[in-house]
Amino acid sequence: MKKEKDKKQWYQRRVREAVVSTQSTGDGAIFKIQLTPADLGPTKLLIETRDRCNNNPEDFEDYKSTKIEAAKHLEAGNIMGYKGAKMASKLLQELCKKHGIKKPGPPSGGPPK
């Protein structure tokens, strides 16, 4: 039986004219698509997060405000701090517990000033 990591597939393409650029390369953007089986916990988490945010304004506001606050870590180049800080979302905590997903630890040093 394959491990969960082995079931995932990644696709990547450089785009010269991008509407949204999340990862600047100097000459465009890189768009990445990850395909995962629907029965994996992280996949269920993503789908349910999307559905809950689309259908419940309180969940959306919680998720949005937590991600905005967590983005301060990205601005400082601290990806692990970002991942830990976004888990402060009540919605993500609830869904991680529901789907048996281990949450990353708290970010070190708190958000950048």
Structural features, described:
The structure is a single chain. With 113 residues, the protein is α+β, with helices and mostly antiparallel strands. The chain is 50% helix and 12% strand. It has helices spanning 4-7, 41-55, 57-75, 79-86, 90-99, and strands at 9-15, 29-35. It has a two-stranded antiparallel sheet. Helix 2 (41-55) runs antiparallel to helix 5 and helix 3 (57-75) packs antiparallel against helix 4 (79-86).
Structural class, from helix and strand content? alpha+beta
The radius of gyration is: 16 Å
Distance between the termini: 46 Å
Instruction: Please tally the helical runs, counting DSSP H or I stretches of 4 or more residues.
Output: 5
Give the uncertain stretches in residue-range form.
none
The spatial strand order of the largest sheet comes to 1-2
- Global outline: globular
Largest sheet: 2 strands, antiparallel
